[in-house]
Design a protein that fits this description.
665 residues, 46 helices, 75% helix, disordered C terminus, ARM-type_fold
Length: 665
Amino acid sequence: MTNTDPTKRVSLAQVLALLKALADDEANNYGLGGASIASEQPYSYVKLSGSASSSKSRLKNSATSIADLLDELVDADDRKQEKILLQLARKCVNTEQRAPMYEDNRIDIVTSMVRNGPTYFAKLYALQCLKWAVISDAQVSQEDFDALRDCVQEASRSEIAAVVNAFQNGTSGEKEEAAVRCACIATRANVDSESKLCAGMVQPLITLLQTGNDTQKLWTAEALGDLAMENETIRAEILRGNAIKTLVALLKVGTSEQKHRAAYALGSLASSKDGSAKIVQKEAITLLTALLLEGTDEQKHQAACTLGRIALSKGASDKLVQEGSIGPLITLAQSGNRTGAQKENAASALHKLVWTDHVLTSIVSEGAVASLVGLLRNGTQAQQTNALEALTMIAQVKENCSKIMEEEGIEPILDLVRTGASAQKQNAVAASTLAVLAAGDDEICAEIARKGGVAPLIELLRDGTDTQKENAAIVGELQALSLNNDGNRAEIAGEGVVPLLIELMKTGTDHQKEYVSGALGLLAYNATICTQIVDEGGIALLIELLRDGTDQQKLNTLVVLDKLAWFDSIRLQIVSEDGIAQLIELLREGTELQKKSAMTAIDRLVLNSTVRAEFSRHGGVGPLVTLYRNTTHPLWTKAANTLRGGLLGLLKAAQTLRAKEVFSI
């Protein structure tokens, strides 16, 4: 401006424009300053300045690759390390730029910074870089990340206050850095213990989401997604701020990264019932489905996750069918990449959607069975579990069982019974899936046996958890459902299942006892199994259930006793365990089904003269006569047949006028 040659002077407007550019660049690179500044001046607005001479180097650094930044980080001083890590965190938000971090052991540099970084925010920025290595790139395990997170202290009140202050009073660059810091704090935060502090950042974030520039909106959506992930209080605060409308708008018109972060934030908010309902109301399903069809890998991954979380909301399933979301979800479950996350999220969404009947029909017709069976064969543990649970619901419709057979789904389900992760109860879920498939289907029962399914189920019964034992008992019951399949029953008997079932009947839960008694009722068509039940002390336990069990346990037990009563020697053991008295009690006080089943068992028992005498001595004839006299009772015919059958010999033996008058036979 003071050059002696007027033609070479710079105008005032040019100088002001340059100064503004330098100030903005200074804010972008230095921002709110180190943690020490925020701690010393917790509630004041911090404004930093830089020199013009350093502007070129800082502008050059802003375009530096991640590889160069990491190489520079090693030899930088403490203050510069924090600035480099801030730049690194900003760059790591872009998937394509992250790749060099995983080359030449550079990720170890970032890990070291989390543990030993010079400042609080240096550690926090490094942790943020590793977040994507976990959730997007599968380069760091969740377990290792959790351990690293514990290396970083929780945010203090003053540090959060400084971030909020920057939102309210800072320059554009400082607001952007505040959004970055907020996202980093949320990544580290134990939101449950820090919810009140973190809640103070919500409204400034929402304001910036609505009014900020593209970069600010991106980081704000990231921060809101992190804050809302695991805390209902924070989610409610975000919902009160009407953030969903703005996030849905970003899905529609945002940049590629903004769409990804908006879908992520909506997925976090969808963890609450209210949030999920509002997302559906704002027509987000249409936009999320578009991401499933045409989005980047990360967008597809996050869209599938969010759709899965809102799938059970009122009206969501119908909307998903209308918008054509089912087909893309099935495609993603079959061929998605992104280190398996796409497949997992798609399978999870399908699992939730199959709970609605008409959506289940749509899912099956779109070819989901093949995709889900494919995940059973080659998927991760989480993918397999989601696929199992979806197939369990699909198999509730009998016609779908044949589709699962056609896709050769029995063998991979059995493989998971044998080898599924016990800690995740995967083998228990697989046993449950088999149970539903086998229900009343002779062909599937036979297929399970042909594929060697008996032994692993009995192994679960022997050594599994309570849930695994319960499901194994169900399948043991269902495998025996076919009355013509004594081969299955013989194999089960040969595997020593009866002692295990009897032990479970002694010590199991009510549910387990119910399933065990049901299994024994179907297995007892086999004579060897009947003998084993008696040898293992099963009669006394069955009579105990008849006396003290639930209604279903009593009904199941009556079926077992009916099968056992075919054998004359066992009839007398039933009498010796006070079984007659309990049968008569059910004739008097049982449900209609129990009375009917009790009479069926009595029909067989009283073929033995000793049992007939015992039945008469306990007053068993009276309840039968009461039913016989009531000709409108639904059990009248059954009572008449019982009286005319096995008890006829007893009545003739009585030879008393009283007996003839009472029975009129």
